Amino acid sequence: METLYSAQASATAGRNGKAATSDGRLSVTLSHPVQPNRPAEGTDPEQLFACGYAACFGGAVEYAAKTLGASLTAPVQVDSRVSLGKMAESGDFMRFTIEVELVVHLHGVDDAQGNQIVERAHQICPYSNATRGNVSVSTSVVATPAAA
Predict the structure, then answer these.
(1) 108, 138 in Cβ contact below 8 A?
(2) How confident is the model at residue 35, as a pLDDT?
(3) Which of 18, 28, 34, 116 has the highest local Cβ count within 10 Å?
(4) Does domain 45-144 have CATH number 3.30.300.20?
C-alpha cells in the first residue's frame, strides 16, 4: 500500500469517555448509545462512523461519477445509518456487530446511471473496502434526472 495520509486519534474511558485527534482538530465527549439515562451531550462511535462513512462514500461517488463521464448538477448527499447489534453468544461472552445503510442522492442522472455510479463508488471507497466481507452494507440511490 502506498500511504497517502494517516490520521491519529486516542480514546480514553471507552464509550463513556473522550476521544481526540492528535492534531487537535477533533475532540469529542463520548456517551454510550444504549445506556439508560444517556446524557444529553456526547456522541458515540456509531455516529462518528456514520459521519465518516457518509463523507468518504460521497467523495468516492463524486470520483466515480467523473470517471464514468456523468455530470452531476448538485453536490452529492449521502445519508448513512449505522446500527449496533448483538450477535449470538460465543462461549462466555456476547459478540456485537454493526450494519450500514447508505442512501445516495444524485442530481442530473437517471436511476440506471445512479446505480452504476454507486456500484463503482462501492469498489473505490476505502470504508467499503475495509468493511467488505465483515459488515453488512446496503446501498440505494435516489436519482433526480436533469430537467429536459
Answers:
(1) no
(2) 78
(3) 28
(4) yes
